[in-house]
Specification:
single chain, alpha+beta, Cytochrome p450, three-stranded antiparallel β-sheet, globular, heme, iron, monooxygenase, metal-binding
């Protein structure tokens, strides 16, 4: 082989591949640099000139979103951060390049009621098991149809028929308190120690079990039924679906947040009623009766019935019991208000043959309702806010342009503590709700059950349960606070619902002398 052939061979074997690769590398680098430059310039443009550029907020929020796993503290304190942002920047805050938070009462009403925006992406993450419900669906058509089918279960007339079941559970609640008093009684003063927070949670589960399933879980008596345990497991897991959305696929695939015994229990209960033609006037029966609806879309499948009953268990237990617990905590911090409520209830005579007041006797008591309203104002169950998303461009308040696909968080906690709407907003003042109040309550800045088409379908159920429970406790028992417990109760956390960090609140309690 002569020198020219060797040179040609070397060129094709060694030099040419490098010459071919270098241009490809240059092209790839150019594409990467162009893409990075485009993203950076877009971020800078949006931050400085985009439609949300003038909305105040932390500097980083102009450019990027901090992953929720870092901002939404798993210890449940992110609601404090949200309120602090509003305190610093005002009633509208930019949280990240595509998310704002609002606490202006008129803007909240506009978003929830007038514009009736669809729910935000967080609710989609909560569909980890694959089932849409009244609570987590983002589909307006689905929600409207499902709400129409389910609403008869929460009609006021129908709720009156459920009072018998509530009373039965409340009687068991009284018996348990009396037993705990007896077991812990101090002989010097007659007071026993009772974990009232725990028992209120058990009572709420028994009530929703009795009214929705057709049988009490007997949580007040034994506290060991597997269904409430399964529900609690799901509640603890739900925030992780929001913090780590990728978990949703795993949950759906492996059903990680559903105890298999739960499905078996519910299916057996439903099939038993269908096959034996057993009827019971409860929420489950209303859902089962949809099987006979004339239109196919109104007939709930067994899976749909199970999903909705799970929702009722969650929404009808922890939210209600925690609010009642917060009411007692507030009353023990302000004993003069406790005495005032006790006096009001004492003036309502018990009907012949009854050991509990009827809801008809309680529902119009001014101070009882004032205590409940003021508790819900200060202890907003949805303290992290309600998330919505714009489905078109809109002009918020007639002056702020909000583009399509912007996430809007309605910060109820800040609105319900805003001094512009509420004089002495951090004080527990039930008197502000009475007819003779010098300053009337700002109802447009009060959203304990949300508002608009997505408002809480169980509002009247919750109020009925809270009135009966509070009136029973206040009329029957004398309370004394334990200072250490009151101090610990200041540590409030927000997961799916608002709660005290210890998930416990003990009080000194004894039967009243009547």
């Amino acid at each position: 082989m002569n020198i020219y052939n060797r040179a040609e061979t070397w060129y094709y074997d060694h030099a040419l591949p490098h010459l071919e690769k270098d241009p490809l590398k240059k092209i790839g680098s150019a594409i990467a640099i162009t893409w990075i430059s485009y993203k950076i310039s877009t971020k800078i443009y949006d931050a400085c000139f985009g439609p949300l550029c003038d909305i105040p907020g932390p500097f980083y929020a102009k450019f990027f979103a901090i992953p929720r796993a870092f901002t939404d503290n798993p210890r449940g304190t992110s609601y404090r951060r949200m309120k602090a942002l509003h305190d610093q920047y005002g009633t509208i805050v930019k949280i990240n390049p595509s998310t704002i938070a609002i606490s202006d009462k008129d803007w909240i009403k506009e978003i929830l009621v007038k514009d009736d925006l669809p729910k935000g992406p967080n609710y989609g993450f909560l569909q980890g098991s694959g089932n849409q419900t009244l609570f987590n669906t983002r589909d307006k058509i689905f929600h409207k149809q499902r709400r129409r089918v389910v609403s008869p279960a929460f009609a006021v007339k129908y709720l009156n028929s459920l009072e018998t079941f509530m009373d039965s559970c409340t009687e068991a609640f009284i018996n348990r308190i009396d037993k705990d008093i007896e077991n812990t009684r101090d002989s010097s003063n007659g007071f026993g120690t009772v974990d009232i927070w725990m028992l209120l949670g058990s009572l709420a589960l028994d009530i929703i079990g009795s009214t929705a399933f057709g049988e009490s879980f007997n949580m007040v008596e034994s506290n060991d039924h597997f269904i409430p345990v399964a529900i609690t497991r799901g509640m603890r897991f739900a925030p992780k679906l929001v913090l780590y959305p990728f978990l949703g696929k795993l949950v759906k695939l492996f059903r990680l947040n559903r105890d298999p015994r739960f499905d078996k229990f519910m299916r057996a209960l439903i099939i038993k009623r269908l096959e034996n033609d057993q009827r019971r006037d409860d929420i489950l029966q209303i859902l089962i009766d949809t099987q006979l609806a004339s239109h196919q879309e109104d007939r709930l499948t067994v899976d749909a019935i199970i999903a909705e009953v799970v929702l009722f268990l969650i929404a009808g237990s922890e939210t209600t019991s925690n609010t009642t617990g917060f009411a007692l905590i507030e009353l023990l911090r302000h004993t003069e208000k406790l005495n005032k409520l006790q006096e009001e209830i004492d003036n309502v005579p018990m009907e012949n043959g009854r050991t509990l007041h009827t809801h008809d006797q309680l529902k119009h008591l001014p101070y009882l309702n004032a205590v409940i309203n003021e508790t819900m104002r200060l202890n907003t169950i949805a303290s992290n806010g309600l998330q919505r998303i714009t489905d078109s461009d809109l002009i918020l308040g007639g002056k702020i342009f909000i583009p399509k696909n912007t996430v809007v968080i309605c910060s109820l906690n800040h609105a319900q503590r805003n001094p512009s709407y509420w004089p002495n907003p951090e004080e527990f003042l039930p008197e502000r709700w009475l007819d003779d109040a010098q300053v009337k309550p700002c109802l447009d800045a009060f959203y304990p059950f949300s508002a608009g088409s997505r408002n809480c379908i169980g509002k009247q159920f919750a109020l009925q349960e809270m009135r009966i429970t509070l009136a029973t406790l206040i009329s029957r028992y004398e309370f004394r606070a334990i200072p250490e417990e009151l101090e610990a109760a200041k540590d409030i956390r927000q997961f799916i619902t608002l709660t005290v960090e210890k998930n416990s609140f003990k009080v000194l309690i004894k039967q009243r002398m009547t």
